[in-house]
Specification:
about 280 residues; alpha/beta; two-stranded antiparallel ribbon; 9 strands; elongated; binds S-adenosylmethionine
């Protein structure tokens, strides 16, 4: 029998510790261990990797990550009610699970981990996008992680993998696809969770590219894209007016049409424009 078989079923753990779900912390749990093992496998080969998991809750995905061979798992959970249940998992996998009772927004996980690092999480909906944007916007590239495998509301997942020309395409798509290979690897209906959320979910796998797809200054590109999509229904020349001197000329010099709207511009076009702006 493996260590995971010695642990009680998650529903028993939840009942024993009276772990009712708190909506304010985005608590929708995955209790099917076949499913959590599948998500762990979608993250890639975990055997020589440290894994960061944000929001382990009662530990369904944590068990999957350890059973699939993660070298070490660092699990950051804000809700202290889950510490006892997580300590039971730690005991079953000696030296391989470290749990921090903290807000993931408040600490630097890289300090606690050794490369290569994968991030795998069923993210709390309230902080999921904020954490993703942080992981995608480090001061230097490549980042401290080699891949992100993250569960989101389906609508957010579609925004991450969106291509130009539609409503879903925007800041998140550009941020993700500029420096990672991003794809949806699993769709999950509300019934897969306990309690079921009101929307469908999807897991996105993002593999960090060794270098960005096209050259551009990350800060300029981020500001440019945020400004362009802030007024996404306006033409580029209006949405970006005043962004830099002679902006309309720079838009043309980048090979873009000043009358296009932001959602028509591919990542390559925004990178070309960021280079024109940086060349002041
Ligand atoms: N990983 C578990 C699973 O798949 O069953 C739980 C996922 S649940 C969607 C999100 C978890 O994130 C909850 O356990 C919640 O308490 C935790 N959480 C919410 N906000 C957090 C934050 N800022 N930092 C760390 N954990 C947080």
């Amino acid at each position: 029998m493996s260590a995971i078989d010695d642990l009680p079923p998650l529903r028993e753990v939840i009942a024993a510790h009276n772990l009712y779900a708190k909506k304010s912390l985005g608590q929708n749990f995955l209790l099917d261990l076949n499913l959590t093992a599948k998500i762990a496998r979608l993250a890639g080969d975990l055997r020589d990797c440290d894994v960061l998991e944000v929001g382990p809750g009662p530990g369904g995905l944590t068990r999957g990550l350890l059973a699939e061979g993660a070298r070490r798992v660092l699990a950051i959970e804000k809700d202290s009610r889950y510490m006892a249940a997580l300590a039971e998992i730690s005991a079953a996998f000696p030296g391989r699970l470290k749990v921090l009772n903290a807000d993931a927004l408040d600490l630097d996980p890289a300090e606690h981990l050794t490369a290569p690092i994968r991030i795998v999480a069923n993210l709390p909906y309230n902080v999921g996008t904020e954490l993703l944007v942080r992981w995608l916007s480090p001061p230097v590239w490549p980042p401290f992680w080699i891949s992100l495998t993250l569960m989101f509301q389906k609508e957010v997942a579609l925004r991450i993998v969106a291509k130009p020309g539609g409503k879903a395409y925007g800041r998140l798509a550009i941020l993700a696809q500029w420096r990672t290979q991003a794809r949806i690897v699993m769709d999950l209906p509300p019934e897969a969770f306990s309690p079921p959320p009101s929307v469908h979910s999807a897991a996105v796998h993002m593999q960090a590219l060794p270098r960005p797809l096209f050259p551009a200054d990350a800060k300029v590109l981020t500001r440019l894209v945020a400004t362009a999509f802030n007024q996404r229904r306006k033409m580029l020349r209006a949405a970006l007016k005043g962004f830099a001197p002679d902006m309309e000329d720079r838009i043309s010099a980048a090979g873009l049409n000043p009358t296009d709207r932001a959602e028509q511009v591919p990542i390559e076009g925004f990178c070309a424009l960021a280079r024109e702006v940086s060349a002041v």
